[in-house]
Every structure is written in C-alpha cells, then in structure tokens.
Design brief:
Chain lengths: 561, 561
C-alpha cells in the first residue's frame, strides 16, 4: 500500500513473463547484443521458432485464415507460433504489456474443437491471433496504459471491439506497449519502459501504438489494433514499415476501452488495424462492420460495409484515378527518403495509368495548432489526476535521458474555460468546411470530372527518428481534425546513397531548419519509408480500395527490370 | 448608430411587411378579435384567399409536387397561394420574421419557365414553397434569431441546406420566428415579439421552431425546416398538431446556419422537417439525402437514403412490430389528454396486429440534468456576448409579464472549465451506453426475436401550455442526448369531458405535483394531442417507416365505426 511508484512498477514488470513457457524465452546470449541495431530478421533465425512457426508467422492474414478454415493449421498451432515469435519480438524491442498464454491457448482450443465438431468456422477471423494496444480492455486483464497508478485495475468486461473480435473467432493474445498518457508519438512509460524500432533500435517505433508497430514488424502478430487521435496508428505503422489504417470517427467501436482525456468529444480517437499485409486491413474492417457494431456502441455510425463504395462507384470504378501529392505541408520539408517515397509512388501510379497532380497544402499549421489547443484545454488536469494516486511523475520528454524539453504537450499549460474551448471547436468546424470546399474545387484540375480521388502525402517529415527526437506529428494530426481516413503504405527503406543529404538554403520555419540540420542518412539507417493515403470523411471502403491500387502499382513498379 | 435597442428593434419590425402586396394584408376589422382564441380555421374563411388558394394550401406535399410537376399548378401560383396564407397566419399568430415576396416569386417563375422549356422538373421539390426557421441563412437576408444586436447582418451566402433545397427546385419563401438565444421551448424575442398557438392563442406555439409550428398549422406553408437541440422541432410540432421529425446528428446539413452556443460539439442541434402530412417528412428527408450533403458539409455522415432500411429490413419487414410505450418518465406524470393520446395509439396498434409492451423509463432525470449541465457550461457567456453590442437584455422568462423565474436556462449560472465539461461529456457517453444496453436487453420481452422496434412516449407531460408556463422539455431532451431520431404524430385534441381532471394523491416530484395542479382542461381548450415515436441512432429511414405504420393505424382506428 505504501510502496513507492517505482516499487509498484518494478513488481508489475517482474511478473510480465510469468505465463510464458520457459522454452519460448530466448537466453540472453542467444539474443543480438544491444549494439546490434537492426534486428528485423532475427526471429527467422531464432531457435525458439520451428520451421512451421516460421512458415506460419510469415504468412499473410488471408492465407492464415484460409489455412485455419481448412484445418490445415489449428488455431492452437497458429496462436502458439505467433506467441513464440511475439516473445522473441518483445525480448528484442520491449513491445508487450499484458501476456496471458494459457487463456489464449484455451480459447484457440475451443475454436479448434468447434471447427472439428461443426465443420464451420465461428466467424470471419476464425482462429486468428490478434494483438491489442494496451488500452483495449479484455475482461479480468489490466489496462494500465503505462500509468503506475492504474496497476491492479482489472477490466470488469471486454471492450465492445474485443467482444466483436471474439464473436468473429479471433484470439486476442497479447497487449502492447504505449506511452504514458497515450499522447506521445513515441512509446515509453514508467511501468513497461521503452519500445524500440526493430529496423534500428536507436530509433523509436513511434507511438502511441508503438508496441504494435514493433511487434507486427517482427511478425510477432499478424494483425493488431491500435488507436489514433493524432497519428497513433499511422506513426508506428510508418516508422515500422507496416500498413496501418486510421478510419473516420465512429466506425470501429471504441466503447469500453481505457483512455486518457475522456469526454473530449471534439477530436475523437479511433481504433484501427495494423498489419504486414494490406489484406489484413480490409479483412479486419469488413469483419468488424459485419457485426453491426452500432448495436453495441452508441457512438458507432449505422452504416454497413459498402461493397459499392469499395468498388469505387464514386471514383470512376477505379479507372484513371487522379491522385494529388502533397509534397510538403508548407511548414517542414520532408527529408530525402520521405521525398523519394513520394517520387517512387508518383512514378508507379503514372506507369499504372493514373493521373497525379500536386496538392497545395491548406492551413496545415493552423490546423495543427487548433487540434493542439483543443487537447490542451484540459489535458494537463486529466494527466495529473491519473498519475496522482501513486505520485508517479508525468513524463515530459521521450528522450533517453529524461531531461529535455517537452515535445507534444506542455504540462505547464493550464486549462481553459468551456467557453474558450467552444470557440476553438467553432474554429475547427470552419477549418473543416474550408478544407472540404478546397477539395471539391479540385474538380477543375483533375481532368476526370471528379475532385481529386485521394491525397498522397508524407506520414512525417522524417523516417523513424532517434528516441526522444520525434516532434509534433504535423503530417498526421491534420487528418484527425478533418476526420479523413488515412492509410499508411510502406514503400522502401532509407538508402545511404540515394538519400544523401542535399544542400538547402531557404527554410519555411525554424522547425524546418532544425529538421534539416538533424538529417543524416546514417542516423536513420534502415528506417522504413512510407506514404500516407488520405481519403474523404467516411470513405473507409474507398480509401482501402485506392490503397490497394497504389500498393499494386508500387509492387508492379518494383517487379519491373 | 446610437439608437437604443428598442428603437432598432422597432425600426426593423416596422418594415417587416414592406414587400407584401397590400391586397394580401387583412384589415384589422376582418381579423378575429384578440379574444378569439381558436383561429385555426380562419384562413379558410379569409377573403384574402381565392378558392384556388384554398385548394392549393389544403393539399398534401405529395399532391402539390405532383400537380407542380404536371404543370396543373405553376410554382408562381402555388408560392403565391402559400404566401397569401402565410401572411394571414402571421397576422393571426405573429409567426414570421423575414418576408421577401419578389425574390421568391422570381425564383418560382424561373422554375416554371424551366419546366415549360425542358419538360422536366429541376428536382424532387420542384416549385414547392418551403418555410425556414430564422437561423437558416439565405444569401443577402438577415438571420437575427431574435437578437437586436444581429439586425443588419445579411448572410453572405446560403446555408448548405438552402443550396440543396434550391437545387431540388424548392422555393424558400419565408423565415419564421424563434426565441432569443434559441434555447427556449416557447417563441418570443425583442425583435419580432411573441408567436401564439393558432388552436388557442392563450397558449404557446412552442419553440424554438415556434414560428414554423404556428405557420404550418395554419397551412401557411406546406413544409418547413426547424432545428432541434432539445425538442425545438418536436415541441412546436406537438403543440401545433403537426408532424415533426428530429433526425440523428449529422444527417441533414447544418453548415452555414446562424446559431447560438456554437462550438459545443457534444450535444448537436439538428435540422429537420415539419409538415401537415407525413409524406412531407419522408419527401424532404429522402430528397436532401439524394444530393449527397456530405460533399457540402463536413459534419454530414456519408450515408445514402437506404430503401432497405425504409422497408424495415431490420424490423421483420414491418410485420408484427413490437412497440414499447413509455407512459411517463418517472418524473412528471402526463396530463389526461397526453395519456389518452397514448391509449388511442396503443389500441390502434393492437388492432393493426402489432404488439405493444411497456417501456420502463431509464435515468430520465439524470439524462435531463446531464444535457442541461453540458449546455450551461458556457451558454451564459455565449448569450451575453451576442446581446452585448446593443445592450438588449437577455430574456430570462417567457411569461407575458417578464417578471417570473427563469425556466430552462439560468443566466446567473457561471461557466465551468473545459476539464469539468469533459467530465460531463464522459458521463453522457456512459448514459448513452447504458441506454443502448437497455434497449438491446428488451429482446427478451418482445416475443419477436428482436429488441423493441420503437419507443412511443409523450412529447411533453402536457399539451401546449399558456405562454410562459412551459417547463424544461424533459420528454424531448433525453432523445437529443441519446441521439435517437424522434418523430411527432398528431393524434387528437383536448376534450373537456374525456380529459377531465382526475384526483391524484401521490406524486413523483414537486414538478409532478405542480404540473398536476396546473392542469385544467379548460385552460388547454382545443390544444392538439401528439405522440412521439423514437427510433435508434441513425435509423431515420426506419423511424419514418414505423411512423407511417403508426399513423395508418391511427387513421384506420378513427375510420372504424
């Protein structure tokens, strides 16, 4: 009762692997040394995994589901394979929070028995292990989200999404790490520590769904669920070379999740999938929709998966699309690898017969400021109250040495009045209207008779940066305010020659200069390069479909001589 | 410039009828005396109207559209007929704000010429005059919403809905009266004065869309648009014997309207239709949806009109529905006529082969308190700033003598912090979740295999009360917080014998006792009796369809011997 917060945290952490069979845990000497930065291929070499484990964990979501449904692989087998690899991933990057092996395997066994007995699958995700960001509640399991003060709070019931995933036959099997407060684009907290990027462990895996990023990149999970209020799905997806999807507000049920800043009804956090393959994104979204989540979460929009919209009925049936690339946001110019990712994409789309025009950024800095102002209206009070019970400090920097300036939030900022908040929200409404008008007006530039079909832009001005150096996520935040669905597609990796630093003289802003000065391809060695595909509010189906077109174009271009 | 607010208001009011042809204005002696309370049938006798004017203004929306499309009646003719009757209605009840005859007739003429030339209608509402609550902006016309301080602010552009209505061929022809601040369930302001109920002018027409209520009841408009954040469409509809529909948040575009309490993103005001016939409600909603409003207003949900949902695919295709009647809310027991309206409905539904069970009210008082707390978070500051430029007082009572206690709002209440507001909004989320769970659980009581198809309940504990005596609208507010679509259906009128006062001893609350003591059928003579049909979030199509079923059952029962 009177333990220090450090003691409570250490005690919790010391029991983290209690449910893991010893043979799944790699010995210290079998693991890469701390100096080995790139560990992305290590699990394939790990002797914890059998050949079958490797085959299974390298499979796409569609392939897994097919082999599960045909009983080629049992759910116990698939869950075990991913669990073993998840533990390896955790030892490499510290990506997990809650681990509950017996419970998951028992559920997998039930599913296997059901299939054997009835000859039919329980649902569209039958037998598939799924990882969940720590905040997604599973009955009788903790959701600390990195607050020492929340240790010991076991969920009284599943979140609605977990109920739905289980009804679809999925097997939740691990929960994943987050930053304290959830409001950082990196992943570090006093309970579970820091998550690293498996492509280069001196870099962040991003945040706040940073545990998901590292875990899935290492193929320790075929499909994970994160949340995104300012980039928290897209940033880990982008930094870790994954597909990650931020749907519009209120399509995936959020009810029953633990969260910070609850009651802030204006800029909504949303749940969404991360996966190594794009099929995982679509399968997840369509499956969840099939369960009529609006009957379980009052916030969810009553709208079924639309095959018509997926077939791009509003976008010329997917022929001769016109994409617009926002090369930079007018505030910070992206680093060479990020620019190269966009150039690769443009060339691939042109080669595939689509049009590509430029997107002129519109009030991006103002939008970013507005969203931050709305959050800081009451964030500090919220954080303080959450941390108060144990007296744990609120983290004000993600640096390795916790002594730098606060980044995203400034906990010294006081709160504002409800009236002042309303004025910010009114401003937000106007920004959304203006941006919508802007998009509609592009009908005059596309040559297709339609406005731009989707925007393509950077996910950040840099690839995954060193720990503590992630700035405000200004390339993801605006789409949260505008409520545009956005999907991350991996394109390449940092190349020391192709991405050499170029001389620059003129800078938009001090941040632009700082970002330029920070760039050195050696710092970012092996970091994944991604693009962000941005659709219009409510166009989840179309955004997935257009992302598939872009992904195919990229793959087609790569396969050219 | 230095005029007093009284002078500014009087000047505005003195020009209200400037654009009206003299022959449309009834002489004082031809109008009923002030002592004549029931004026509902007066327009039919008025010598301002021709026989054709009477025939046209007595027609249903469907019939008007059909006769407009076939060129039996021109839009100039139809608009003129309604305009003339609207002016009579205005002279009887003071229901109008902005009147712009030449502009509307010019538009009607354009539509007539288009039809003559092309043989086709402009859209689904071709030629139909539509009345608009004062806050719905029409380019170059004022939207004062009763603030003297806002006189002279001419709209720079149409609200999105007006653009859509015009593209559908509708003819906006008058704007209608509201209470200052819009946050009252009665209609009175310093600019335009008070609107009365045409069934009994000692009673209120309700509010805040109270001008619409009086105008449409007198058949001065076939279809009007109001707004509803706590009952502002349903209360005038119910008090004036109309159909009125509050859709869920963000289906009908609100962008570009003038409003109070802007930026309060939690409990949203919505626009919706009022009409003398239920066909008007469906025609309006379906027509607006057909114009893809999500491409014009960023808040609108991307969801087309669903014929499948209208056909009640989720409700057993409309056969053997199970309705649940909430006879009272556990706070204030409805007066005899209101109870009788529910009994008539129950009998009619049973006779039509549907099931009817009881709905146990759930936390109705707590829901009402939460919604009020959220509004008052910053309402007073909002109101004060709006009124400040001219120094006009904020109205704190709707009584004929402005000296009673404030009713809905307490302008003495101070604002709260953003953090406190978030806590209220978190509470709201929980209330919504609990209520959804409650509804789902009714699957065990219906005998249909489905949860209750719709709730039927009072719109208020009383019929239209005397001016100044409308209490907090506790029978409409909860559905705004829960975001349930709700449609008002007229059932009957107060009957001095059938609705005699009954002895009662026990009361839920002091409000319950006060309401009981206030009741006397003589006070409420001729007041319309209505019911409220409540669907589930996003079920606009199904709620309209079920209301049609209920309306048919009621009409079928009336036609029985």
């Amino acid at each position: 009762m009177d333990s220090s917060w450090q003691q409570i945290a250490a005690d919790k952490k010391s029991h983290q692997l209690d449910s893991v069979p010893k043979e799944w845990i790699s010995s210290a000497q079998s693991l890469p040394s701390e100096k080995t930065l790139n560990v992305i291929d290590f699990p394939q070499e790990s002797n914890v995994l059998s050949a079958l484990d490797r085959e299974i964990t390298e499979s796409s979501v569609a392939s897994l589901l097919s082999n599960l449904a045909s009983s080629k692989w049992s759910s116990v087998q698939v869950t075990t394979s991913f669990y073993k690899r998840a533990i390896v991933a955790h030892q490499l990057t510290n990506c997990l929070t809650e681990i509950f092996v017996p419970r998951s395997l028992a559920r997998a066994r039930e599913l296997d028995e059901y299939l054997e007995k009835t000859g039919t699958v329980v649902g569209a995700l039958h037998g598939l292990p799924i990882s969940l960001k720590d905040q997604i509640s599973i009955k009788n399991i903790e959701s600390t989200i990195g607050y020492v003060s929340w240790i010991g709070q076991f969920a009284k019931q599943n979140s609605v999404l977990v109920d739905i995933l289980e009804s679809l036959g999925a097997v939740p099997f691990v929960k994943t790490n987050v930053p304290q407060t959830l409001m950082w684009a990196e992943t570090f907290n006093h309970v579970f520590g820091r998550t690293s990027n498996p492509y280069n462990r001196s870099l962040t895996s991003g945040g706040s769904s940073g545990g998901e990023g590292a875990l899935i990149a290492l193929k320790g999970s075929p499909l994970g669920v994160g949340s995104d209020i300012g980039g928290s799905i897209r940033i880990p997806a982008g930094y870790c070379g994954l597909y990650g999807f931020r749907p519009s507000y209120n399509r995936i049920p959020y009810a029953g999740c633990v969260n910070t800043m609850e009651g802030g009804d204006s800029i909504l956090s949303v749940l969404g999938p991360l996966s190594n393959t794009l099929d995982g994104i679509k399968i997840f979204f369509k499956a969840v929709m099939s369960k009529e989540p609006w009957l379980k979460d009052p916030m969810v929009i009553r709208k079924r998966w639309s095959e018509e919209e997926y077939n791009l009925a509003d976008h010329g049936n997917g022929k001769n699309l016109c994409f617009a690339i926002m090369w930079d946001n007018g505030v910070v110019v992206p680093d060479p690898p990020v620019r190269r990712g966009l150039e690769i994409t443009k060339a691939a789309l042109l080669a595939a017969g689509h049009r590509v025009i430029d997107w002129k950024p519109y009030k991006q800095a103002e939008i970013t400021k507005n969203i931050n102002d709305i959050w800081t209206a009451a964030a500090v009070e919220d954080f303080k109250r959450a941390a108060a019970p144990t007296g744990e400090p609120i983290i004000t920097s993600m640096a390795l040495q916790q002594d730098t300036e606060p980044l995203v939030f400034h906990p010294s900022d006081g709160g504002i009045s409800a009236f002042e908040l309303w004025q910010l929200q009114k401003k937000k409404r106007d920004l959304r209207q203006e941006h919508l008008n802007r998009w509609e007006e592009t009908v005059n530039q596309t040559g297709t008779g339609r406005p731009v079909d989707a925007i393509i832009c950077p996910m950040a001005p840099h690839t995954a940066p060193p720990h503590g150096l992630n700035k405000i996520p200004q390339y993801t935040l605006p789409w949260n305010l505008l409520d545009y669905p956005a999907l991350i597609i991996p394109v390449s990796q940092v190349d020391q020659e192709l991405d050499a630093k170029q001389p620059r003289e003129d800078f938009y802003t001090a941040d632009d200069r700082a970002n330029y000065e920070q760039y050195d391809p050696a710092t970012y060695e092996n970091a994944p390069i991604s693009i962000q595909v941005v659709g219009r509010t409510g166009e989840e189906e179309a955004t997935i479909a257009m992302s598939e077109i872009i992904d195919q174009a990229l793959k087609g271009a790569q396969s050219q001589p």
